[in-house]
Amino acid sequence: MSQLEDTGRASASLDLLWGLDEIGGVIRRNRRQTHYLLEKGQLPGAKKIGGRWCIPRTALHAVFGLGQEAA
Question: Topology of domain 3-70, per CATH?
Fold first, then answer.
């Protein structure tokens, strides 16, 4: 099994959202708004890894009160 396959499997099990577009899509904000929220620390649980933002989907659900149907 390649390292890429391992990474994909780990990401799926953690249910991480990667990048401004993916995060913004869940919270229904554009790239600029999402970037602002992330830079100001308004999305708890978000981390910048290798220059790219990521956040567990469950963290967004907790902050915004989203149900699993919004996924």
Answer: Arc Repressor Mutant, subunit A (1.10.10)
The residue whose two tokens read 């790219």 is: 52
Question: CA-CA distance, 49 to 47, in Å (whole number)?
Answer: 6
pLDDT in tens, 19-53: 999 999 999 999 999 999 999 999 999 999 999 99
**How many angstroms separate the CA atoms of 3 and 21, rounded?**
25
DSSP class per residue in 18-57: EHHHHHHHHHT--HHHHHHHHHTT-STT-EEETTEEEEEH
Q: What is the pTM of this model?
A: 0.72
Residue 52 in tokens: 């790219």
